[in-house]
Design a protein that fits this description.
The complex is a heterodimer of chains A (110) and B (114).
Chain A lengths: L2 E3 L4 E5 L4 E3 L2 E3 L4 E8 L6 E5 L10 E2 L10 E3 L8 E9 L7 E2 L3 E6 L1
Parallel strand pairs in A: 2-11
Antiparallel strand pairs in A: 1-4, 3-8, 5-6, 5-9, 7-8, 9-10, 9-11
Chain B lengths: L4 E3 L2 E4 L5 E6 L6 E7 L6 E7 L2 E5 L7 E4 L6 E5 L8 E8 L8 E2 L3 E5 L1
Parallel strand pairs in B: 2-11
Antiparallel strand pairs in B: 1-3, 3-8, 4-5, 4-9, 5-6, 7-8, 9-10, 9-11
The chains are: A mainly beta (110), B mainly beta (114).
């Protein structure tokens, strides 16, 4: 079974401070990891995926297979980063099913 | 194309009633997914269609739940004899069959069973 754990329900940081959202997973197969974001009154949308190795809106995430982690980081948080963030996992071969963590609510204060 | 749409956006029903939700995916997306999200949790996978074929159903999808995608375009999710535990946000997503299978989500249908 695949499981995604986001240990922090709430995260509050000041504008300009670094922010890191933790995500750990357990899966025996070949995982593909994602971060989804949901801004207030908007639908869930993909932020980034590990295979793309991109930086989106200043966010990066590195897949660490040894620690089974996929933490999301941004060096300087902005107020517009306030949102709900979900880490998700799918199998590389059976990639139709996303398993989501419970989510972390990020609040960036001025 | 404005993305995945879902109808209705909100539904209040009494226990024991049947409800049906509709999802219109992004055109040309051949994959369609249903998820359920309860308060404080992330979305949970319910079922998946490739074109009109329903290829997997989660154990969460009891016999009271049925989903269809008759022509490989829109999909419906029906819940029969609703229970209070069915109260949740029901999300639909779609993707294409290419290498980058990003799932695009709809706004969801919020169901409240009284």
């Amino acid at each position: 079974a695949q499981r995604v754990t986001q240990p922090e329900k709430l995260l509050s940081v000041f504008k300009g401070a670094p922010v890191e959202l933790k995500c750990n997973y357990s899966y025996s197969g070949s995982p593909e990891l994602f971060w989804y974001v949901q801004y207030s009154r908007q639908r869930l949308q993909l932020l980034l995926r590990h295979i793309s190795r991109e930086s989106i809106k200043g966010f990066t995430a590195d897949l660490n297979k040894g620690e089974t982690s996929f933490h999301l980081k941004k060096p300087f948080a902005q107020e517009e980063d306030s949102a709900m963030y979900y880490c998700a996992l799918s199998d590389s071969f059976n990639d139709y099913k996303l398993s989501f963590g419970a989510g972390t609510t990020v609040t960036v204060r001025a | 194309d404005t993305g995945v749409s879902q109808d209705p956006r909100h539904k209040i029903t009494k226990r024991g009633q049947n409800v049906t939700f509709r999802c219109d995916p992004i055109s040309e997306h051949n994959r369609l997914y249903w998820y359920r999200q309860t308060l404080g949790q992330g979305p949970e996978f319910l079922t998946y269609f490739q074109n009109e074929a329903q290829l997997e159903k989660s154990r969460l999808l009891s016999d009271r739940f049925s989903a269809e995608r008759p022509k490989g375009s829109f999909s419906t999710l029906e819940i029969q004899r609703t229970e209070q535990g069915d109260s949740a946000m029901y999300l639909c997503a779609s993707s294409n069959g290419g290498w980058v299978k990003t799932q695009y989500f709809g706004p969801g249908t919020r169901l409240l069973v009284l």
